[in-house]
Amino acid sequence: MNYDFIAIEGNIGAGKTTLSKMFSEALGTKLILEQFADNPFLPKFYEDPEKHAFPLELFFLAERYHQLKDHFSSPDLFQQRTVSDYFIGKSLIFSRNNLNEDEFRLFRSLFDIMFSNLPKPDLLLYLHVDTQGLKDNIKKRGRPYEQGIKEGYLQAVQRGYLEFLKQQEGFKSVVIDLKGQNFVEDKSCFDRLISLVERKFPIGLTYLDFERDI
Q1: Are the C-beta atoms of 10 and 131 separated by less than 8 Å?
Q2: Please, are residues 95 and 54 in contact by the beta-carbon 8 Å criterion?
Q3: What is the per-residue pLDDT for 151?
Q4: 127, 8 in Cβ contact below 8 A?
Q5: CA triple 187-35-12, angle to 5 deg
Q6: What CATH number corresponds to the domain at position 189?
Q7: How far apart, in whole angstroms, are the C-alpha atoms of residue 187 and residue 191?
Q8: For residue 78, is pLDDT > 70?
């Protein structure tokens, strides 16, 4: 394994938490999972986005920052390798999509302070799933407050991620177009994905087509 800190990212319903758990178990690493269910503003946001977007994003940013700060300030001497099912940069991506301009400027100033004080992942894997696949996964996992998410919102989030990752030059990001692959039910698919931790990638953004490049 070439990387000590791997972050797995993706749109809503891409499967990042499931894959993170599978990676951590297979590699024997520590695991960081985002505690999204603890955010009291999340169900309220889906009911009234304009009213609850700012407290939603502030709560997420603070929780992500403290979780990562606590984890990396007290490393386990016997196990320092980590897989996380999120990258704190997602706070900027979602806030840009959800907040008005004045709110976003304030949020950005807070984000920049926190972002500069956290370690960046040695490798970020972004799971690219088409919109229909995302909708199918959201329906399958059955969280009531997610069922009304619009296709346009998912597309905006996807664009936000890709634009953000293009601008990041300080670490290695890999966008994987899964092409409808099911890494949960297909062991060969999972084996091909986990083989990526042994590959060396350049700093910046790399695009991989699952069928052609992995």
Answers
A1: no
A2: no
A3: 95
A4: yes
A5: 55
A6: 3.40.50.300
A7: 6
A8: no
In whole angstroms, what is the distance from residue 17 CA to residue 11 CA? 11
Are 82 and 4 in contact by the 8 Å Cβ rule? The answer is yes
Query: How far apart, in whole angstroms, are the C-alpha atoms of residue 181 and residue 97?
Result: 28
Q: Per the confidence metrics, is the pTM higher than 0.90?
A: yes
The total number of structural domains in the chain stands at 1
Cα separation, 98 vs 57, in Å, equals 8
Question: In this structure, are strands 5-10 and 204-209 parallel, antiparallel, or unpaired?
Answer: unpaired
Contact between residue 4 and residue 81 where contact means Cβ atoms under 8 Å apart:
yes
Range of the domain at 104: 5-213
For residue range 117-150, what is the model confidence (pLDDT) as tens digits? 999 999 999 999 999 999 999 999 998 889 989 9
In the block, which residue shows the tokens 């990526």? 196
Residue 127 DSSP SS3? strand
Give residue 77's pLDDT band: very low, low, confident or very high (50, 70, 90).
low
6-60: pLDDT as tens digits: 999 999 999 999 999 999 999 999 999 998 878 999 989 989 999 999 999 999 9
Angle between helices 49-73 and 90-98 (to 10 degrees): 170
- Active-site residue set: 85
